[in-house]
Design goal:
The complex is a heterotrimer. Chain B is mostly helical. Chain B has 20 helices and three strands. The two termini of chain B are 49 Å apart. Classes of the chains: A mainly alpha, B mainly alpha, C alpha/beta. Chain A: Belongs to the binding-protein-dependent transport system permease family. CysTW subfamily.
Chain lengths: 487, 450, 266
């Protein structure tokens, strides 16, 4: 792992820079630290930071860009072959990388010498066998163009790797030296170091933006790719979902959206009344003792991972519903996995979510309004129903929207509890499926990654992201407006 | 709203306070009903909690018990070491197929010795009783200690999952009728062997420390390797999310000017907190696996994805605890000539540390139980049968994780795996409760009231 | 009707005792907030409770319509009679009591509803109207009573929170009056208002005296002198002196009252 060693060496240089910087600063004032502008450590930090940050930044960028640039460089060698075989260029390039990795492994294990690896040719050597002994299995024999590209790939990677090591270490050493040269008694080391730390802090804060950008880019590019292979109108308006790996799939999102919304609706029908009444009871009626027991107990439900709810739906609630609504009971239900199963369990999961949000919101209603109502002779429930809940309504609507967004984005419960059939029916005891469940099944199946059957998952993810984002923004806006009203 | 009867009553409202009028009685009844709804909601919440925890415990606790056959096995030198020089290299040539008959014979002999009546006359019929892994385990024992060959040693042999299930009431005579792996006659035999103490149940350490097994051997499957996978992921999350989260919070809370850029960061953080976890899985697949080309199924990828998911939690907790440090502390530090940076790092941050740690532990607990993103980066479907060789392979080699392992088991057809899945949940919840308990203790212990 | 009869009765003897408190003690947890207060409050009179902040005057006021019930740790001993009935009797429903003893608070607290709904809230929950027309009538009467009708008659559906501070407080008074109480408790009703709004509310209080027994807590001695006929001076949880307002302000009997009036304590 060369990158690991480079990082270690850079850190070593930095430590040396710190020690030298500190002692240089002390030497400059002949040990009397009062003559220094900053504490001696800051001079050390200055040298160390200048040795580490630019070098590691370069390393990170290099590591990400190098494979892309080299791939572009070797594309020319294989593009003709890809066209000739009507294969996707990306797949051919994947072959190239695999062969190159295999050659590396073979050289590392001593099966080939470095020169031999460079001079291999498909005509004289059984490369597939050689690589297989090195632990890299290939699906087919290596084509000459691929081998040539792989060899070129190795050469370029090797050269680029050397350049990278040299450059990174040079920048690290140079930065440290520059930092050391700056050391003078009147040098404002603390201010410079603090600027540096501030930059690092800003960088950390930007990770949030980068994450969003990453999500959006990974969704957008693949979604565009999908719409190139499959018409967008069919995706959004077709009522059939039947992927088939031989091609000719119908990938309409409507049945999935229907399943998602139906399950979410049932979940909200369970969670909202229970959660809301629980919140009202806890904040208006419950004694301190009841509250101190009931509130954490209900919040335990929120801390339980969704996989547990999924299993609960599949193995406990499903069979239980089957007993009542299945063939032995009312005969409405064919299998344990159904909209009702997933909806009920998801509702249970959302109870603490609704109740703790509503609890906060109800508590934000000023006591003066309660006093005003009691002072007129209203009972507690009249006060709650006619004064507190109307006053808290915007906040509660926000909380319900947040819960809805949770329900729409929930995966494990529907993967395990809702079934796999894409249907648009009204019977809640039928199995249906959701957007999230299909994202999982399309990306974990055996579909080729470049096929519309796999890429559709990104379009589904994009739809999911847009819907939940919209709901969240709306909900947060409503809640914020509501809070401003009472501040 | 207008109520006729009540309206009529109001005209002659008895002004005496000690008599409750009809309308007030009605209103008080409505009050009681409303209160009852509230109590019913609380009761419903508690009821669901009890049912959930109850079904976890009742279904899962049996996974911690495993059935073993306790029989003396004669390690025949003729079969195991023909050369007779006890050289482990030579003995390796005998594969597990060579050991299986020994186990079968041993079980059959033990049954006969105990005088249990059985319809079986052939030792080969005994193989339905013990796990397919028994021969391999016996082989490992012998190879580790070649001197055992030629002796008769009492072994604890892992029983097959059907026998295990029969003793745990999961497998019944009805279900066995359709089962090609085992007959009702075997169950009769197991009854006899249990009376003769040849079949016993004991604590199942292998479930906690062991590795996953193939679809056909649920009796052998354990959580150990998946636990390590989760452990390495949590190391990544802790190592990245804590410093990044704290740094971001310090910037936003202490240094950031109020401008559009800061607003953008704030909006991003609050939205990331609400993005569905599956979308983070898509991010991990597209960015870390396809673009950066990190290995599939590796804890490092899972750790990176979970880091991004946990960041908002840690940032929100950290900012709350930074906010709770009173401004007077900052003023005091600035007043003696410290720089802004020094006042934050020397005074504010140490005071906010307990709150930050509490938030971090809670974030880690969330990350530990998260499953959906792991599905997409390939940690499900990978059968974690090997422990990682060293630390680097712990991060970079394919592995599973606790919730992914539970999901994997839940998907398998054999109901014996359901028991494992519930058992896995118990282990997972023990970790989560422990982490939350630590967080609560930390909060109680160091909570400061300003 | 019963109502008019009692009103007539009231006019016959203006010195009727409406509220009689005997040896009232209030505890907040361990804190003894009100000590041994006994007072007779007359009908058709404005009675002012004055005293330095924290002296218990608001606490005592909140005992008169059992608003302290909503505070868990409050405990009340002694006897408070309204029209000769003990309001802390087990059979008394505080809901009915509060319909009879209305209250106006320190800060205007209109509900986040329309002006009309604010005033109609009390009549609706107590079932005082048979028809919508009845209700309209009650609301109009209450708003007129509170001298607010002319200002809001064109925008009854506008939210009550959109009014100015003085209007909001008069709306709250209208809201209290709409339930047809017999006693009106006012807890520093002008402390959040500007001088002009204060003047309007004070004028209103003076008019309300004709129909109600008004008890007002105030920290302003001038206000007490302006609006009340009787004044009670509280200090450290005890009732120090209770007499006609004139007497309290011109010739106080107790030295503590005198110190407070002249500004030496408070």
């Amino acid at each position: 792992m060369p990158a690991f060693w480079i990082v270690l060496i850079v850190l070593g240089i930095a430590v040396a820079g710190f020690v030298l910087g500190r002692s240089r600063a002390l030497n400059a004032v002949i040990g009397d630290r009062r003559d220094l502008h900053s504490l001696p450590n800051y001079y050390g930090w200055n040298a160390a930071l200048k040795g580490v940050v630019p070098a590691l930044g370069l390393l990170a960028i290099w590591l990400i860009l190098q494979p892309m640039l080299i791939e572009r460089a070797v594309t020319g060698l294989v593009s003709e072959q890809a066209i000739a075989e009507e294969r996707d260029l990306g797949l051919v390039l994947a072959d190239v990388r695999r062969v190159a990795a295999g050659l590396d492994a073979a050289v590392a294990q001593g099966l080939l010498s470095g020169d031999a690896a460079r001079d291999l040719s498909t005509a004289s050597d059984d490369i597939r066998a050689t690589l297989a002994t090195a632990g890299v299995a290939l699906g087919s024999d290596v084509q000459p163009a691929v081998l040539a590209a792989a060899q070129r790939f190795r050469v370029l990677s090797g050269q680029a790797g050397l350049v990278m090591v040299a450059l990174v270490l040079a920048i690290s050493a140079g930065g440290t030296l520059y930092g050391l040269r700056e050391v003078r008694p009147d040098f404002r080391a603390r201010n410079v170091v603090e600027q540096g730390i501030r930059a690092i802090l800003i960088g950390a804060a930007c990770i949030a933006i980068l994450t969003t950008v990453g999500i959006v880019l990974s969704l957008v590019f693949n979604t565009i790719e999908f719409f190139r292979l499959y018409p967008a109108a069919d995706f959004f308006f077709s009522t059939t979902w039947s992927p088939s790996f031989g091609g000719g799939s119908e990938l309409g999102i409507l049945p999935l959206l229907w399943g998602t919304l139906y399950i979410s609706l049932i979940a909200l029908l369970v969670a909202v009344p229970i959660g809301l009444f629980a919140a009202v009871y806890l904040s208006e009626y419950a004694t301190k003792r009841v509250r101190s027991v009931a509130k954490p107990a209900i919040e335990i439900l929120a801390g339980i991972p969704t996989i547990v709810y999924g299993l609960f739906a599949l193995l406990t609630v499903g069979p239980l519903l089957m007993k009542v609504f299945g063939d032995d009971g009312l005969g409405w239900m064919q299998a344990g996995t159904a909209v009702m199963t997933a909806g009920l369990v998801m509702g249970i999961m959302l109870i603490p979510f609704v109740s703790s949000l509503s609890d906060d919101i109800i508590n934000a209603v000023p006591q003066a309004l309660r006093d005003g109502s009691y002072g007129l002779g209203a009972t507690q429930s009249e006060t709650i129903r006619q004064v507190i809940l109307p006053a808290a309504l915007p906040g509660i609507v926000g909380a319900i929207l947040l819960a809805a967004s949770r329900a729409i984005g929930e995966t494990m419960i529907v993967v395990l509890g809702a079934g796999a059939a894409a249907r648009m029916e009204l019977n809640p005891f039928e199995a249906m499926t959701t957007v999230t469940a299909k994202i999982v099944s399309q990306l974990t199946g055996d579909a080729d990654f470049a096929s519309p059957e796999a890429l559709v998952a990104f379009a589904l993810g994009m739809t999911l992201f847009v819907i939940t984002l919209g709901l969240n923004v709306l909900a947060l806006y409503i809640v914020r407006k509501y809070r401003e009203q009472y501040e | 709203m207008t109520d006729l009867s009540a309206g009529a009553a109001s005209g002659q409202t008895p002004r005496s306070l000690t008599q409750t009028d009809a309308r007030t009685k009605k209103r008080n009844a409505a009050e009681k009903r409303f209160r009852a709804y509230g109590m019913a909601a609380i009761a419903a919440g508690m009821f669901f909690l009890v049912v959930l925890l109850g079904s976890i415990v009742t279904n899962g606790v049996t996974a911690f018990q495993q059935t073993f056959l306790q029989v003396p096995v004669y390690l025949d030198p003729e079969k195991l070491d023909k050369t007779g020089n006890r050289d482990p290299e030579e003995m390796k040539k005998v594969s597990t197929f060579g050991y299986k008959p020994l186990v079968e014979d041993a079980v059959f002999a033990a049954v006969q010795a105990a005088g249990i009546e059985t319809a079986f006359e052939d030792a080969g019929d005994m193989d339905a009783l013990f796990s397919a892994s028994a021969a391999a385990q016996l082989r490992d024992r012998v190879l580790a200690n070649p001197d055992l060959v030629g002796e008769t040693v009492t072994f604890k042999i892992l029983a097959s999952s059907r026998v295990d299930g029969y003793l745990k009431d999961r497998v019944t005579r009805d279900s066995v009728a359709r089962d090609k792996n085992i007959d009702a006659a075997h169950l009769d035999l197991v009854d006899g062997m249990r009376d003769a103490s040849l079949v016993t149940k004991s604590f199942n350490w292998d479930f906690i420390t062991g590795s996953d097994a193939s679809e056909s051997r649920p009796e052998q499957a354990g959580m150990g390797v998946a636990m390590l996978g989760s452990f390495y992921m949590m190391l990544v999350v802790l190592g990245l999310a804590l410093p990044i989260g704290v740094a971001a919070s310090i910037y936003l809370e202490e240094f950031a000017p109020k401008n559009r850029f800061t607003d953008l960061i704030e909006v991003n953080i609050s939205n990331l907190a609400a993005v569905p976890s599956i979308v983070f899985g898509i991010l991990g697949l597209a960015v870390f696996i396809q673009f950066v080309e990190l290995p599939q199924s590796a804890p490092i990828v899972g750790g990176l994805v979970l880091t991004l998911m946990t960041l908002p939690t840690i940032i929100i907790a950290t900012r709350a605890s930074l906010q709770s440090v009173p401004p007077s502390i900052r003023d005091a530090a600035l007043g003696v000539g410290a720089s802004k940076m020094q006042s934050v790092f020397h005074h504010v941050l140490p005071l906010a540390m307990p709150g930050i740690l509490t938030g971090t532990i809670i974030g880690l607990a969330q990350a530990l139980g998260e499953t959906a993103p792991l599905l997409l980066i390939g940690m499900v479907g990978y059968i974690a049968t090997n422990y990682p060789d060293n630390i680097a392979s712990g991060f970079f080699d394919p592995n599973s994780a606790m919730p992914a392992q539970i999901y994997e088991w839940a998907k398998r057809a054999d109901p014996a795996y359901y028991e494992r899945a519930w058992g896995g949940i118990i282990i997972l919840l023990v970790f989560l409760f422990a982490m939350n308990a630590i967080a609560i203790i930390l909060r109680r212990r160091f909570e400061r009231r300003w | 009707m019963y109502d008019t009869a009692s009103r007539l009765e009231g006019q016959v003897s203006a010195t009727d005792i409406k509220i009689a408190a005997r040896d009232v003690q209030v505890f907040y947890g361990d804190n003894h907030a009100i000590k041994d207060v006994s007072v007779d409050i007359q009908d058709k009179t404005v009675t002012a409770f004055i005293g330095p902040s924290g002296c218990g005057k608001s606490t005592f006021l909140r005992c008169l319509n059992r608003m302290n019930d909503t505070i868990d740790i409050a405990r009340i001993e002694g006897e408070i009679l309204i029209d000769g009935e003990d309001i802390y009797d087990k059979r008394v429903d505080p809901v009915q009591l509060r319909a009879k003893v209305g209250m106006v608070f320190q800060k205007p607290n209109p509900f986040p509803k329309s002006i009309f709904d604010n005033v109609a809230y009390g009549p609706k929950i107590h079932g005082l109207s048979k028809t919508r027309a009845d209700l309209d009538d009650i609301v109009e009467r209450a708003l007129r009573r509170a001298a607010l009708w002319d200002e809001v008659k064109d925008r009854l559906t506008a939210p009550g929170t959109g009014l100015s501070g003085g209007q909001q407080q008069r709306l709250c008074i209208a809201r209290a009056v709409a339930t047809e109480p017999e006693v009106l408790l006012m807890d520093e009703p002008c402390s959040a208002l500007d001088p002009i709004a204060t003047g309007q509310v004070e004028e209103l209080i003076d008019e309300l005296r004709q129909d109600y027994s008004v008890v007002i807590v105030t920290h302003s001695m001038q206000q007490a002198a302006r609006v009340s006929q009787k004044t009670a001076f509280f200090h450290l949880g005890s009732l120090v002196e209770y007499d006609t307002t004139d007497k309290i302000f011109t010739n106080p009997q107790d030295s503590r009252t005198e110190s407070y009036i002249t500004g030496r304590i408070g």
